[in-house]
Amino acid sequence: MSREPVRVLILIGQLQQGGAERQVHELATRLDPREFTPTVATFEAGGHYQTLLEAAGIRVVVLDKKGLREAHLPLRLARLMRRLGTDVAHGFLFPANWRLLLSARLAGVRAVVCAVRSTGIWMNARHRMMDREALRRASVVVANAPAVREDIVSRAGLDPAQVRVIMNGVDTSRFHPGESPLRSGWEGGAKEGQLIVGFVGSLREAKDPLLFIRVAAETSRRHPGVRFVVVGEGPLRQRAESMAREANLADRIVFAGERSDMPDVLRAMDLLTVTSVREGCCNVILEAMATGVPVVATRVGGNPDLIEHGRTGWLFPHGDVAAGADSIQTLLSDPGLRARVGDAGLQRARDEFSVEAMVGATADLYRSLL
Predict the structure, then answer these.
(1) Do 316 and 323 form a contact (C-beta atoms < 8 A)?
(2) Of 240, 271, 264, which is closest to residue 341 (Cα–Cα)?
(3) How far apart are CA 168 and CA 118, in angstroms?
(4) Distance between CA atoms of 190 and 178, rounded to whole angstroms?
(5) pLDDT tens-digit readout, 177-206
(6) For residue range 285-344, what is the model confidence (pLDDT) as tens digits?
(7) Among candidates 71, 60, 78, which has minimal Cα distance to 10?
(8) Is 61 strand, coil or helix?
(9) If we measure between CA atoms, which residue out of 295, 299, 298, 300 comes closest to residue 353?
(10) Residue 369 phi, psi (nearest 5)
């Protein structure tokens, strides 16, 4: 007699474009439906990945937590778990993790997975306490990079055996080298022969787009022909645009906003720069590597787990504008080196960071918990 599929509830704060949201989409849509029935719950309606999940036949439940509804959220989430007959509850990121754990206890769900996707340096004392208590009570904690695992074990005092590393996966059928229609006509465009250095990410403190502007200004002084593209939206956009004007970059930088055509975005670039304050397993680094685009990134969080300095990319200390510009200059001034670094990153992405490996490791984890 065949077994009923394992019923998995995945909880995440929202389903707009973002790295964790992308991994939730990949996981929910790629789990074998003969063995798993996933449901995705979120606190905010709408978003790019809600549309994609529902189009793929995955049920998405919106649990509004605005105003007084926040106080009743654990009970509503617990009722949802009981109604679904949830076998495994899987939370993504701090806002989901602590609420999920409380609700799973009320619903009697024993297998609870908490996913942590960056180091916890941003947290205040209250957040650290809540995070620590939630992670300690989870069945297992999933870190998306070895550096994140070390941080969790240290700050939450967890038994290392409770923390499993499952690296993010990149879909190499979508992200691969090729030509991009954006290359020549990208909202003001780059003239033929010009080099394009890009930034992709939310324009928020964690990704530090203002550091990118400072590094771009220094790079532009050394390479006047280079063009810069910023892809993403967020509360720091206006300040970043103002800084770009003050640095005389207005005619050399494009603020392209949020885009859904990320494979073409990356193929249009000669180099990607990641200026984050903190990171776990950075999705856009993996996507750039899979596209054959060299990456210059800050030496924070899980970035050194992805980039082998000098071979599959370049690393520099966060906040060091000169070091960032030096790294970019090294790659821009040597087309042969740029090609070798891009090829090495491409090979590593294909060998070690496939989306199939991420989904397979997560499915194995679910099986082990049951």
Answers:
(1) yes
(2) 271
(3) 12
(4) 17
(5) 999 998 886 645 555 568 999 999 999 999
(6) 999 999 999 999 999 999 999 999 999 999 999 999 999 999 999 999 999 999 999 999
(7) 60
(8) strand
(9) 295
(10) -75, -20
Query: Which structure tokens are listed for 353?
Result: 């960071």
329 burial via Cβ count (<10 Å: 0-12, 13-18, 19+): middle
The identity of residue 230, as a single letter, is: V
Tokens of 313: 């990319």
Identify the residue whose tokens are 């494009």: 254
Give the tens place of pLDDT for each residue, 112-134: 999 998 876 667 788 788 888 88
| Threshold 0.85, pTM exceeds | yes
Contact in structure between 354 and 170 (CB atoms under 8 Å): yes
How many angstroms separate the Cα of 24 from the Cα of each of 40, 61, 115, 303?
8, 14, 11, 21
Q: Which amino acid belongs to residue 360?
A: G
Vertex 251 angle, CA 247 and 256, to 5°: 100
Q: What is the pLDDT of residue 69?
A: 67
What pLDDT is attached to residue 232? Answer: 95
Q: Where are the beta strands (DSSP E) in 93-189?
A: 111-116, 140-143, 163-165
Question: And the tokens for 314?
Answer: 């370049």
